[in-house]
DNA sequence: TTGTACGCGTTATCAG
DNA sequence: CTGATAACGCGTACAA
């Protein structure tokens, strides 16, 4: 009961050799139907299960891929992982997940460990605090595909799947302009990060393209919290000419803004339109439901997985692919001025 | 560059044998400091990485565990997984995740595949539609620890970590009673499932223990959607004697109820107190913030991982442990009648 | 202190 | 069509 049955066990039972058993199990054409039957029957009887470890060692293919994210229980990341798993599991791959907790040291450890575990690829959303890339270079040196998703580092030879933040911000801002808003503010998070720079740039570009003036006073920073959103909103509303629309670089900021505006008796969207970013699940439940830029995490995961599959199938040829996904603006009540 | 370096490579380089290298790397006491130094240096130089596959095959320990959930991008499940990963990763285990999509056939396939992959344990939240248990028995037959979390099946030899739904419902109901509510309704989901039966039972028990009458009219069913919550709330409010409190078995129901009550001009919590179940992230963002029973997913994950570790460390001795976690009621404004 | 030889479970190669 | 053997990379008795 305890010992796992191997092909030797079933070979012995049938008075044939393990090689034959292996061939029968793998449907090798040059094997008699007769023995194939026998082997299959005996395998079933002994409850034989192929040991993938041995296969992996022999073939050099572990059929495991490593997925690394800062935290797995964030809606965005868990959705990306879902996409990856759904794409890769049917192809016979196992998905190993690890969390960096936004810690560079941990990230390095994880990557080393995954390499030790002989994963066939590493798909990673780089930690916010990662400053070096030696660990990534090591992955490349081993010739195993490395794929960045959402958060990337500049590094030759690495494929990536990211979101067009600029485009998302542009769409959001343009939408607000189309609603007739004349003074559009922007709440940003951390301008040290590329994604927020891009969102700011998209916002600016949309203003410019529609002949609207960019006003630095309309750009306020916030931390990733509701209270921060409230504070930022207060700052904006205390301006001599308060804005009539706010595009926040995250959803919590948008929520905080809405709460503050309600507190001071403003109506949304009549007095001020709001658009957030990320399309977190809660946005659709709010009153009013909050418009937000969707980051399409599921497609991002599936795409990342597909890029890996391409890479693995193009033996020898090194490919470096950069996929940039288009975000889609989910328009809801918080930014819909004119009815419908 | 392409070939991975093995202990043989570094042995050859140093004119010693692979065995010695292996020992040096593993800090075997009976090895000269001299050669140890040399080996370590050469290992670093050649960028040697231990091949865990070979080790796993040799030792019979893969250092992988499989975690199976219906969908990974549900807040509850991803949080449980986070707990598992955080507990197991430091111990050197890799966490392989798979999703059943609530499909029994898929679940069976996944379990088989994990067995093939030689995982050391399977931690699973059973699919809602699973009716058989042959695949689980197989796991037990192979003598690998099987641990159910959140959703369990009755099966000897399997450990489990679940939530005390009865207790959670009891607490919620008792809290409403303490707020002075006299007519407490209950929204339930699917009474075919044990967890909802238990929540209903906890609700009833709390009423009874406080000398309050159970009124079947106050129990309404709902699907897991907001609109369902609205419909159910309407049904309740149309009763001759509408309730002054609602305890919903999920958060979406609570949210729908709040939205409907607001629509018809009721004030929350003054006219009607609301408590939900699950403590989904959005509950805290709502207006008013919704009280809810927290299912402590993180502790559940950590506990499940610990149970596995115990099991693996108690060689030979079969243990079957059932941990039932106490839920904690998160009290928020939606159920706080008397100030504070 | 170090070397020799073997086995973990598979498959691929080469004979037969 | 099938058997024997080597090899994947590692750790470990046993021997020296």
From TrEMBL, chains A, B:
Matches recorded under Gene3D superfamilies: 3.40.50.2300, lambda repressor-like DNA-binding domains
GO molecular function, one term: transcription cis-regulatory region binding
Keyword Transcription attached: yes
Keyword list, A-Z: DNA-binding, Transcription, Transcription regulation
Residues of the HTH lacI-type domain: 5-59
Record-linked InterPro entries: HTH_LacI, Lambda_DNA-bd_dom_sf, Peripla_BP/Lac1_sug-bd_dom, Peripla_BP_I
Keyword Transcription regulation: yes
One matching Pfam family: Peripla_BP_1
Record-linked PANTHER family: HTH-TYPE TRANSCRIPTIONAL REGULATOR GALS, LACI-RELATED TRANSCRIPTIONAL REPRESSOR
Name by which UniProt lists this protein: Transcriptional regulator, LacI family
Naturally occurring in which organism (per UniProt): Pseudozobellia thermophila
